[in-house]
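Quick look at the format.
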Amino acid sequence: MPRQGAIVAVLAVAGLCSSFMFTLVVPIQARLPELLNASREDTAWVVTSTLLAAAVITPIAGRLGDMYGKRRIVLVLMAVMITGSVIAALSTGIVGVIIGRALQGAVTGVIPLGIAILRDVLHEKRVDSAIALISATLGVGGALGLPISALITERSDWHLLFWFAAGLGTLVFVLVLWIVPVSVLRTAGRFDFIGAAGLAVGLIGILLAISRGNEWGWGSPATLATGLGGLVVLLAWGWFELRIPEPLLDLRVAARPAVLLTNIASVAMGFSLFASNVIYPQILELPVATGAGFGLSLLAASFIIMPSGIVMMVLSPVAGRLSRRTGPKLLLVIGAIAIVIAYGFTLLFSSEVWHILVANLLIGVGIGFGFASMPMLIMRSVPQSETGASNGLNALFRSLGTSSAAAVVGAVLASYSVEFEGARVPTETGFTLSFILGGTAAVIALVVALFIPAKRAPQERHPSLRD
């Protein structure tokens, strides 16, 4: 069997690759209508398609991993991501890019599956530190990937972004195939296809309403139909899942206090993280003449954002050691406090570039500790046969938080904007309200974290497990 350090390293690289997909198109997002000869409403699907695919596939991939082998499903997801990257790289029109970006979204399921693999193969003393490292890649990949994307965009054709993604995915595929051991701990039974379809339809409806509501109008028939329709489908899905012997997700396990409260905190933490991803780059890049920006180039701005990812990576071993001594609950509390301080600092000090740098470093501390704690809390509360599906569900809740942040903060900045050189740009008031929203979400995460039971749940062995 490969050395455990090599397994952790490969899964960390896979996590970086996964999170990088979400900042891949940031440098060209504003230019997409021109590059793809399409309307801005149509090019918004380049981002929305990735979001929808990630949210739907992640919990389903977790269950498939529990049943058919976690490494096998990781390889499948990497292959889908590579295929999507090649499709987008070869496309000159919007349809191919949207299809490619949707397929790239599948790779998001790699991180919760990787965390579940760590629980299966690592010595107990190494699990917490390894999980902290893999969890950190959720933020690190985006923070480190942004300057790479910016550099490629400034120096070359935009298609090279997708060729780079395809090459990175191929490298990860080979490393996983070579280093990560085959999963031997599996849950027997039949896959719940009806449950998977119901979850997909319900999530797509709700996420469409959240992500496109600002553009469609929050009270428009399209928003209400997709949002309320998705909610009804999810309620029916939950009723169905509770009444079948082999559900896609065991909602009784998901309803355990530690799991439920961790997932609620994940929504709030996801909101706080993505709000910072929306707000700080815009402040850095807006022209000084607008009265709300610093006029940096995208590449320069990305170097201000990047240190937060480095902080997440550096803190991962600290998070692991602290979790072993005090339990993961304290990590989540510290993480939420750090983010509250970050937004509070920004509300008081945001007149210099270094103020934004300090705030982003605090965000890095918060996400580094907060995201590390969540899978640890989940895995202390579910049987080993449910680790893939439960971590996938937790990743889904984080996605709901990030989706909500994109929609809500986007709506606030659009509402508080002024005309500048033929375009609408956010005002200082819009940014201030967005800081308050991000900080409020962090406060909610802190309060919820305080109520999470600290005691480890008994780790029963599922009767259908086979070695």
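Next, a different chain entirely:
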Amino acid sequence: MRIEPYLFFEGRCEEAIDFYRSALGAEVTMLLRNKESPEPSQCPLPPGSEDKILHSSFRIGETTVNASDGLCQGKPNFQGFSLSLSAANEAEAQRLFGALAEGGQVQLPLGKTFFSPCFGMVTDRFSVAWMIIVPS
């Protein structure tokens, strides 16, 4: 058994995937647009959402993340969780943190803690919270 996050970007999924490709080296493994669905939508979608993403999967390192445009309501609302990203070393942590912080907001700058030589928290431009850590 495994847990895979599923993120709803409410109309910004393709932009988010492109960002994660650039920032984290994400690799898209599956992408299905609304107009490609084999069945009509069970949920009412706004006009012009035919090219929005019904379902996608992408890999960041060894982890699969699923994502969608959801109901295309404009602003994603990610609350109550963070995605934790382990970096091999401090240089990689700084690179990843800096990339995710671009257009986002630093919650806790990278620094040494009692549990890690390098740990920080950032919310990216899509409001997804990340914790970057170099394991001890």
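The chain has a mean pLDDT of 95.

See the schema section for token definitions.
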